[in-house]
Amino acid sequence: xxxxxxxxxxxxxxxxxxxxxxxxxxxxxxxxxxxxxxxxxxxxxxxxxxxxxxxxxxxxxxxxxxxxxxxxxxxxxxxxxxxxxxxxxxxxxxxxxxxxxxxxxxxxxxxxxxxxxxxxxxxxxxxxxxxxxxxxxxxxxxxxxxxxxxxxxxxxxxxxxxxxxxxxxxxxxxxxxxxxxxxxxxxxxxxxxxxxxxxxxxxxxxxxxxxxxxxxxxxxxxxxxxxxxxxxxxxxxxxxxxxx
Length: 244
Ligand code: FPP
Description:
With 244 residues, the chain is an alpha/beta fold. It has a single domain (14-143, 186-234), classed as Undecaprenyl pyrophosphate synthetase (3-Layer(aba) Sandwich). Helices cover 41% and strands 14% of the residues. α3 packs parallel to α4. It is globular and about 60 Å long. Bound molecules: farnesyl diphosphate (FPP). Farnesyl diphosphate binds next to α1, α2, β2 and α3.
């Protein structure tokens, strides 16, 4: 079941949920003398390998930051390429995701995505909804602040309608109004290419995540790199603000 889990990783100390900020595609492409979009294409292959690796090693959830609310500010041709890349990947990989029992979910304001992409997203989410394997979440047109605002609006409407008491607003209730409702918080956040930022990603959900930042550019983040991240994670003493 747990295919090839390296001997130095402890099954009972693996993160249950890994989140990734896939940074450095453009720089990788430049270093190879290629156009930026080739970095994204290679980055998508890297993500696929990581998803399979997480699944092989018994990690229950992987969340990837594919497109932020700020990424619309990139050159139009790059945005267009990314949108059509997401669409092509979904169409191409759906069969394999079904075979490998992956449950895919997209989070973010999906209403602003091209309608053909929205249709592929809806199809892939519906088809994989009852799968029992890894939960794969793709943040697309996602912004952490925007997610929190929309949760506040939904809750405020219930208070205004008289169906919710302000004192009934707990952390649990709030989390149920986030896009990620039902998915546990990430235990480990990986960011590639050396940037020390959260960049508006999962602001609420990352409260107690361990962070692993590597200089490796995303397209080069392979199984060995992930193994290194997990070794680092297993050395951490997670206290959640308490003393032992
Ligand atoms: C950041 O690198 C990367 C992105 C904004 C795009 C990430 C998307 C993928 C890897 C495709 C994933 C596909 C699916 C279906 C989820 P950058 O362009 O900011 O790199 P740079 O900092 O070197 O310029």
